[in-house]
Amino acid sequence: MIYFIISLLMAVISFGVGYLFNTEKERLVINVIFSIFLGFLTWFLLWFCCFVIAFNFTGWMWLIAVILTIRILFAGIVDEYDYNYKALFSLLIIVILIVIEIFSSRAFRHKEFRGKLMVKKVPYENLVKDLSPLDISKMIIVDNNEAKIIAELTLSDIPGLGSRCKIGEISGSKITGSFTITDGKGVKHDLSFDNDLVWVAPLEFIGYWRYSDFKTTDGFVMVSAYDSNVRYLVTEVNGVKMNLKYLKDRYFEFNLERHLRNNGYLNAGLTAFSFELDDQGSPKYVVTEYDNVIGVSGEEATGTLIVDPLTGDIVESDVKNTPLWVENIQPIDFVKSQIDDWGELIHGWINKSNRDIITTTNGIDIVMSGNSTNYYTCMQSSGADESSSGFMLVNTRDKSAILYEISGINEFGIMKAFGNHIKVKNKNYSVTFPKPYKVRGVPAYFATYKGDDGKVAMYGFCDFKDTKIMGVGETIIEAMNDYQKSSILQAQKLNLDSDVKLETLEIIVSEVISENDNYFIIPVGNKSIELYGSSKALKELKWARKGDKANVIYNLGKKETSAALSYFDLVRLDL
Length: 575
Description:
The protein is an alpha+beta fold.
């Protein structure tokens, strides 16, 4: 309705402008027709582009100014002086908009921009405590790029599906709950999750004609972030068919953003259209509402709109009351911009000497920390190359930020070191963006190596401060054992926290099982501990039998129940 009112006013203004330029009756009909056309063009562009209609958003104002300028330029002017005089009106509007934009910029309001992110500075020791202990079963092996490739494979589950549908934008979703799904082949699966990360993406139509023929897509794709072999094309959840109607790339009133605009959200900024699952497995679109809080700039997330893609139902919440299953309220581009403002505007917009400036490393990713999800990035001094002066975590829900003050190597320096490791130096592998974990009480980076086919080929761990402490292997356990071995060789640089202790003792093997080259041992008298290692790194492991005595070394955290062996020596053997 607001779009229509603005378009009607535009048509009236257009007619008035034309009448001012030429009052002859024979030009009246042309003026009316052209004004109606401009009114329709205004409505179409507002509707098609889904402009926010609010005084602190200037997009729609620029549209009006441009169309008004076109109207004045198009008018037939005989008197050049009159033309120039009346053209000043549209020029004045453009100048006013430019002035508003300038006075809402960082140049004039740098203190407000820097104050949008409140950062708590803490020493390195806090990072050791705050990072989650390594849980091999929940390491993020599959990134969003690989998940998209894997998701494409599921289209073959339904004959002909690939000719009408494509995989939409993929998003991460953390789930705690149980539900039943039906896959594309009609097979039911009972799934259970405990704070587990999965990648999900809706099926989108390839083009308009496929949309015209079928109206709804068949469901969505789910890929485990921990295991590339766990993937489903979901057509039903708990017996409900997943006929998705409201989608980000749909047409007309079923386009997701247009659906929200048509249902009362014309004056709110909308961004980060994320497809996620709630704890019952039902798909939802999570859309971040935002407002410009510094003039016509300074985007700030104010809440969420949760949309059911099957029915179009909308639930609005502020940031604090958004359901806990929603992880990403703060858009990544908002967070990165605010981190940069906090680090770069420390002494104002003009800082010729770059004094005290720190910036992000242009790399930002998501990391799990306990039950929360955070954006993380290294911070570096202005002009630094591969060094790091700190490490920042920003909560994806409430934007609480912590800067851990630690000098070391940034993510790109770590990636370069991974690529130069002797095991992969002559192989054409690419290294994924590294993620931080706590390995036996020590902060370490974890990354995967990918081949030309985009699939994971190897794994690697590297110390935060010293790239000499690095381990690479064909499995996670092999890479961890190699890392532990490297840590022992550089023992003087190992900084265990108070919750982790180095165990050196003789055990008796109670139980032993193997999976390929990986061996898992339960010692006699302590069945609450699982020791594991790879026979490629510890060759006597493959000869371990029940009742054997062995000398072992491992690091065990206070709350951990499994530990990687860094040394294993059977008493009965001398290999």
